[in-house]
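Appendix B, record 7
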Amino acid sequence: MKDAEPTRKASPSSSALAGGAQDQDFQTVLATKDDVTVYTPVHVGTKLNIPVLIKNTGTERAHYTVAIRVEGPGGFDTTVRMSTDVVGVYPGGTWPTELTATDHTKPVPQHPKVTITNVARRPLFKE
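Structure tokens (predicted):
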């Protein structure tokens, strides 16, 4: 997110797409698990930015912890993580973010395999 380098969209294989669904704010949906949706990664130099959207479908404010694995040819394999522990996500609210995947010893894949490996949701007390 801090890099000001030009970006180039990744072109995931059709097998990597989750039904080819489109979202008005991001790109093609790659994976969905519980309240988490991952969209088409974007190449930024030697990094891969992964747009993520959390939508709290529950009735209480909640904190989320998410892990996303990114794999590719040549041994590229990394897991990126995020959490919403600061204030949590309000019911019906969304938390858009972008995670950066790098592997300093392997090149960024053109067609990465992106998998949501973990979603943990911790509801807070009702306000």
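Remarks on this record: Strands lie at 8-9, 29-33, 36-39, 42-44, 47-55, 62-71, 77-83, 94-101, 113-123. Confidence is low (pLDDT under 50) at residues 1-24.
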